[in-house]
Amino acid sequence: MLWTTRYIDAAVAQLCAEGDEIPGEDVARLSPLKHKNLNVLGRYSFTASTPAGGGLRPLRDPDAAGLDEDDEDDEE
Q: Which of 7, 17, 37, 54 is deepest in the core (most CB within 10 A)?
């Protein structure tokens, strides 16, 4: 959940840096719990490693062609 939270924070920061205005009340309602990569009922086993350079992976460009492996073809 921490990892997803860090990426949500990074995405908001990038959008703000690009000039998008995101109201604080919208940011306050963001939750990592609604993302499909989290299964709060399952068991997890991690081999922790530090990302290269100690940072986050680059965020995906939403305008880029193709989907990530965890994206679905249907849009909501």
A: 7
Contact (Cβ atoms closer than 8 angstroms) between residue 32 and residue 1:
yes
What end-to-end distance do the CA atoms of the chain give, in Å?
23
CA distances to 8, 43, 71 from 74, in Å: 22, 28, 9
**pLDDT attached to residue 14:** 92
Measured on CA atoms in the order 54, 59, 65, 71, is the torsion positive or negative? positive
For 23-49, the pLDDT digits (tens) are 999 998 888 777 666 666 777 776 766
Q: Tell me, what's the pLDDT at 76?
A: 43
Contact 3, 11 (CB under 8 A): no
Distance (Å) of CA 42 to CA 38, 47, 73, 74: 9, 17, 25, 25
